[in-house]
Amino acid sequence: MSPHRAWFVAAVTFVTIIGAAAFRSLPGLLIDPLHQEFHWSRGTIGAAVSINLALYGITAPFAAALMDRFGIRRVVAVALAVIALGSGATVWMTAAWQLLLCWGLLVGLGTGSMALAFAATVTNRWFTERRGLVSGILTAASASGQLIFLPVLSWMVENHGWRPAAVTVALAALAVIPFVWLLLRDHPADVGVKPYGAQEFVPRPEPVPGAARRAVTVLLSAVRTGPFWLLAGTFAICGASTNGLVQTHFVPAAHDHGMPITAAASLLAVIGLFDVLGTIASGWFTDRYEPRRLLAVYYALRGLSLLFLPMLLAPSVHPPMIFFIVFYGLDWVATVPPTLALCREQYGEDSAIVFGWVLASHQVGAALVAFLGGVARDTFGSYDVVWYASGALCAAAALMALVIRRRPVRVPVLA
């Protein structure tokens, strides 16, 4: 018996996200080279990363609505082209505003349309069973891409400068476009099959006009409910403690303690390896256990590990640091499957767009810490205060997750 077509679509989505993941591997590697070449402050460089991360999140709910209007395939193909343009154009920049435009605005808009709302839309359309597992696998794809690209890009930056690394990111995004256009399909009805696990055939819905209006309407409805604010708050802390902090500032922080850039980047790649395992396992757990409790455990363990990190940074890699990397990697985006499950439970058919807005809060949190982390380094000469503050925030997120109410919320419909 051949596998259901939904698994093929999930595999195409997985490879697409891997191919586009190069852009997420580069920001932390650029801080020191750009600081040395252009004498820009780390705060200025962090501001470009901050814009990128914020747009990555803010664009996501509109991208989910655009996928309902124009189809997944078209939106993702255009997003990859914008990523390639923004990353490729950085090689000619001479002023800080050009970094803000190319890496901040263009790459931010492109990556926002390739955000986790993409994975959520594919999961919701093609699966009625195994959604937790599939969302975990697709979330892990980004970490897999990081695992592939980080060692290569760090070697390029150290041996040939940052420009070849930026060109590699652009080429990786371009290479995925024909793959998406030829192999990805928008809906099970396009190939005459039922969603995986569905008892009845689901016809393809009519295109939804007014994508931007729908995204805003769903937001205005969701903000009237308490669970939205708790989900958004916990996910903001998730972004602050991962993309904003560790992904952006771990390499320069380790380099401050004498560790070579390639060694620090390799540790981030190992985080990516264990992130794959942790996120897939989290998806499996989410199909079987209470997602609120899972979130509380994940955030509590993450906060505890961050409190120990300043004591572990050293010129060389040692066993306690390896333990931190493995531990942190398992927890990196394990929060996504239970957060997605809670969005589906609370908001039903609008869950992909609601999750897009929750993801926006994730990236706003990441953006703030990407910027403030650079400012803290410029001000205090180290990142210690940022590690401790993030650990405390994770403890607060654990408590917030536990108070999300279990009863599904009836979202008011705006006239």
Give a written overview of the molecule.
It is a single chain. Helices cover about 80% and strands about 0% of the residues. By secondary structure, the chain is mainly α. Helix 3 crosses helix 11 and helix 12 crosses helix 14. The termini are far apart. The C terminus is likely disordered.
Can you tag this structure with a few keywords?
415 residues; mainly alpha; 78% helix
List the helices and strands and how they pair.
Elements (H helix, E strand, L loop, with lengths): L4 H15 L2 H4 L1 H12 L3 H29 L1 H18 L6 H18 L2 H11 L4 H30 L1 H22 L27 H12 L3 H31 L4 H26 L4 H22 L6 H13 L4 H12 L3 H30 L3 H19 L13
Helix pairs in contact: 1-7, 1-8, 1-9, 3-4, 3-11, 4-5, 4-6, 4-7, 4-10, 4-16, 5-6, 5-9, 7-8, 7-16, 8-9, 8-12, 8-15, 11-12, 11-15, 11-16, 11-17, 12-14, 12-15, 13-14, 13-15, 13-17, 15-16
Please sum up the structure shown.
This protein has 415 residues and is mostly helical. Helix content is 78%, strand content 0%.
Shape, per Cα inertia axes: globular
N-to-C span: 48 Å
Report the sheet with the most strands, covering strand number, pairing sense and barrel closure: none
- The number of distinct helices, counting runs of at least 4 residues, comes to 17
Query: Which residue ranges are poorly predicted, with pLDDT under 50 across at least 5 consecutive positions?
Result: 411-415
The helix/strand order is HHHHHHHHHHHHHHHHH
The helix-and-strand class reads: mainly alpha
Number of strands: 0
Q: Looking at the chains present, what oligomeric state does this protein adopt?
A: single chain
Helix content: over 70%
Mean pLDDT: 83
Strand content: under 5%
Q: How much is the radius of gyration in Å?
A: 20 Å
